[in-house]
């Protein structure tokens, strides 16, 4: 079995792959909890993506304690289905690349598309909402937006009287009270950014992009999104596993 680990800004996810199939997803609250959840399991390889160096060290210790001999941490220099054309690659979050790798792998493996000659856009709705764009087989950049819950916390913490709005209800474009005004502003500003990117990429490159959405807040965004998209909850884990294949780690 192969273990894929995604260390984000505020959470850890682990995927258990058995003969290439994702069979189990774990969402531990900490590295020690991950160790408890994996107790008794045996893995040949662990492939890790991390945007948090402190948590990475702790997860590495867990993998070592589990006696996983082959442990690999993905970087921007790892092999992906696409090239990287980015002005500051060493500041590029590996999670953005893993999500895009998951989308490319899905297109190749699930849809049997051998020549991806259309733009691919991935949206990861987490602590930050990242919009990532690949054109002509190369990652070219995108947008980083505060995640919808991050926006909400910022408003509540930095204002005297604004309430903690509920982002899970149906959200109108025009709010009619303070709660719905806040919810609309947060959610619809994010939706508008996604739809603008889709429209501009489509216009500039004359081909309809394929859009993939993932992340803990994706359900809220999807309810308000008109852009055609594919929702894959474990997109990053699939990308981490795929990147391990690209590097011939297993």
Q: What is the CA-based Rg, rounded? A: 19 Å
Question: What's the helix-strand series?
Answer: EEEHEHEEHEEEHHEHEH
Mean pLDDT: 95
Quick one: CATH superfamily of the largest domain?
A: ATPase, nucleotide binding domain
Strand order of the largest sheet: 6-9-8-7-10-11
Quaternary structure: single chain
| CATH architecture assignment name of the largest domain | 2-Layer Sandwich
Strand tally is: 11
Kindly report how far apart the N and C termini lie. 10 Å
CATH class group of the largest domain:
Alpha Beta
Q: Tell me the CATH topology of the largest domain.
A: Nucleotidyltransferase, domain 5
Helical content class: 25-40%
β-strand percent reads 15-25%
Largest sheet: 6 strands, mixed
Protein traits:
250 residues; Nucleotidyltransferase, domain 5; alpha/beta; six-stranded mixed beta sheet; 38% helix; five-stranded mixed beta sheet; 7 helices
Structure description:
- This protein is of the alpha/beta class and 250 residues long.
- It folds into two domains: 1-73, 2-Layer Sandwich (Nucleotidyltransferase, domain 5); 76-250, Nucleotidyltransferase, domain 5, CATH 3.30.420.
- 38% of the residues lie in helices and 24% in strands.
- Helix 1 (31-38) packs parallel to helix 2 and helix 3 crosses helix 7.
Layout of secondary structure:
Blueprint: E1 2-7, E2 12-18, E3 21-26, H1 31-38, E4 45-50, H2 53-65, E5 70-73, E6 83-84, H3 94-109, E7 120-125, E8 128-135, E9 138-146, H4 148-158, H5 178-205, E10 210-214, H6 218-223, E11 230-231, H7 235-246
Parallel strand pairs: 1-4, 4-5, 6-9, 7-10, 10-11
Antiparallel strand pairs: 1-2, 2-3, 7-8, 8-9
Helix pairs in contact: 1-2, 3-7
């Amino acid at each position: 079995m192969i273990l894929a680990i995604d260390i984000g800004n505020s959470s850890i996810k682990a995927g258990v792959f058995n003969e290439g199939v994702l069979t189990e997803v774990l969402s531990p609250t900490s590295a020690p909890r991950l160790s408890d959840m994996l107790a008794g399991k045996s893995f040949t390889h662990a492939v890790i993506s991390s945007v948090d160096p402190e948590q990475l060290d702790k997860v590495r210790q867990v993998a070592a304690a589990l006696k996983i001999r082959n442990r690999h941490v993905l970087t921007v220099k790892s092999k992906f289905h696409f090239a990287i054309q980015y002005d500051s690659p060493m500041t590029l979050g590996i999670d953005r690349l893993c999500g895009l790798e998951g989308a490319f792998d899905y297109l190749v493996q699930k849809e049997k598309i051998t020549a991806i000659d259309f733009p691919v856009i991935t949206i990861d709705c987490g602590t930050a909402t990242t919009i990532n764009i690949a054109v002509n087989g190369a990652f070219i950049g995108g947008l980083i937006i505060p995640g919808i819950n991050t926006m909400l916390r910022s408003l509540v913490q930095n204002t005297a009287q604004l309430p903690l709005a509920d982002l899970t209800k149906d959200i109108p474009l025009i709010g009619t009270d303070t709660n719905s005004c806040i919810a609309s502003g947060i959610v619809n500003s994010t939706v508008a950014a996604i739809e603008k990117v889709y429209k501009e990429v489509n216009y500039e490159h004359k081909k309809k992009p394929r859009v993939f959405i993932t992340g803990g807040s994706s359900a809220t965004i999807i309810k308000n999104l008109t852009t055609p998209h594919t929702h894959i909850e474990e997109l990053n884990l699939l990308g981490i596993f795929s990147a391990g294949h690209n590097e011939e780690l297993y």
